[in-house]
Amino acid sequence: MTTEECPVPLGVSQVGAGLCEDFGPSQGDEIIEEVGPCDDVGSDLSTLVVPFPELAPVVFFCLKQTTCPRNWCIRMVLSPYPLIRISIMVILLNCVTLGMYQPCENIDCTSERCQILQAFDAFIYIFFALEMVVKMVALGIFGRRCYLGDTWNRLDFFIVMAGMVEYSLDLQNINFSAIRTVRVLRPLKAINRVPSMRILVNLVICYRANHGNVLLLCFFVFFIFGIIGVQLWAGLLRNRCYPEENFTLTSGITLPAPYYQPEEDDERPYICSLAQDNGIMSCSDVPARREGGRECCLDKEDALASAMGLCVNWNQYYTRCHTGHTNPHKGAINFDNIGYAWIVIFQVITLEGWVEIMYYVMDAHSFYNFIYFIFLIIVSFYTLPCMCSEIKHVS
After folding, report:
1. Of 151, 216, 285, 360, whose CB neighbour count within 10 A is largest?
2. For 207-235+327-395, which CATH class?
3. Neighbouring residues of 141: CB distance < 8 A, sequence distance ≥ 6
4. Where along the chain do its domains lie?
5. How far is CA 245 from CA 126, 161, 251, 318, 364, in A?
6. Is the domain covering 79-206 a CATH 3.40.50.300 domain?
7. Are 335 and 236 in contact (CB under 8 A)?
8. In which band, very low, low, confident or very high, does the pLDDT at 3 lie, cut at 50, 70 and 90?
9. What mean pLDDT do residues 141-152 have?
10. Is the overall model pTM greater than 0.85, yes or no?
């Protein structure tokens, strides 16, 4: 047998804290042999002492486990308390600084408070970067048991790299706010430091297949409700009361608004029902105009000769219900397409403002449309959770 096939073994002795040199032979110890890529070129075989068999024998092509820089890093990473506790304290400090940051008041960061927070942020970033370097030296970079072989370490790597890009852009006087938002991911580093929290997150991820079935059922139910809403009420929430098509005014006089608006901001619009629908509200129900707490009673012919304290009731001329161009709440509430219908459905199932939306639809289409909203809430809060729990139980 050649020397390469059966090399002469070296024993591994007990490794003490801070020991960084190679070890001599010792009887009865476990025999671990590796070929080192950074040993003397003139020797045909190099034998490495591997005090930590679960880690890579050599990283960065030349750092062995017994080499002083890497040995120190390994002991820092494998020690359960000092580095982890310091890291958790830094993460808590980062949460405090993120909560104290006021971007609207400190746009140019000229105040003393903002500069102090920036100094803390730089210290936190440097700590995370050094921690990443220590782990890379101890574990290696690529490989199943190396630094980037762990999912949470990849998250830490992404956060550090995003911070590096942020500081590089600051040096170039480039403002890229999207990179700054990565700072909010820093508290997630605590998951990698607290073992119990990491176990809980991993359990949630392990059940993602069941969650996919539940989400698929919810998507199917909401898709059905969205289609019903689009088919019944597409464009109806844009109905407004306009003047008649042949309505004319004397030169120099204009209507206060192109259509009737109860309020100037049009946040709570007056939605009327078309002639072919059976909605609750119609343009004949538009109230008289009021100015200064008084009800207006003059006609348009008296606009130029109005007496002191009297005003023209312009609201009496908004008599034609017609589909306009604006939906309620800046166009966010409507059933014009399936996307907006889903937005309305999500707002309804949160039980926030759903009554107002129901009234809009009842005013424009039919009184009996309340059945849709009541049934949607019952399905979302009672039937759907029971069905989802049954799916998870069966799975």
Report:
1. 360
2. mainly alpha
3. 59, 147, 148
4. 1-67, 79-206, 207-235+327-395
5. 70, 63, 17, 11, 21
6. no
7. yes
8. very low
9. 80
10. no
